[in-house]
Amino acid sequence: MAKTPVVVTEDDYKADPENVQRVETSLPGFPDLPPVVTYFKVQHLDDLTGKPAEGIETVQILVPVEKERETHELDAEGDTVLNGDGSAKIKVEKYLDLERRELDLSPASLKKLQTALKPFTEKSREVVIQVPAQVAKKTTSGPNPALAEWNKRARTWLQNGAPASVLGGEEVPPKGRIKARWEEAYMAAHPQDLKPA
Asked: What is the pTM of this model?
């Protein structure tokens, strides 16, 4: 949550010791002098206005963002086009991705967001996650390659593109199991990429 410290008085500290911090600072080179005491109150800021406000809520939104990626160029038959040296010809294509963002908004700013989105939300429909009818069963003969690839995609997103709020200050390990809440965040950000069974 966006916040800023504001210097307040000792009286403010006495009136509200839970929300006001008392900080003592010793002056270097003057060990016999008492420390300087400063009182700070943390104020939460509205990300839209940049001003302190009461009743701030953190709101998550999915933002459509146009991105670019490199892919192999294909001919009319769907085969990879090759360069003169035999390597695959690369082309850059644009695609639409959804990025999960968050804002700290006062009630007034939240109302502005809701008003701006109203024409879109009125035309929108609820998202229903469907599980494919035929889901490949994991065999005991070895790991599921589709699941391994899905885990790799999810881990890459968590390490390189996930919002800090998703990770909660934790580091994503390079190997091992991905936490369930991280998997859910990945699927929410990539609804077209369902986790294989």
From this structure: 0.45
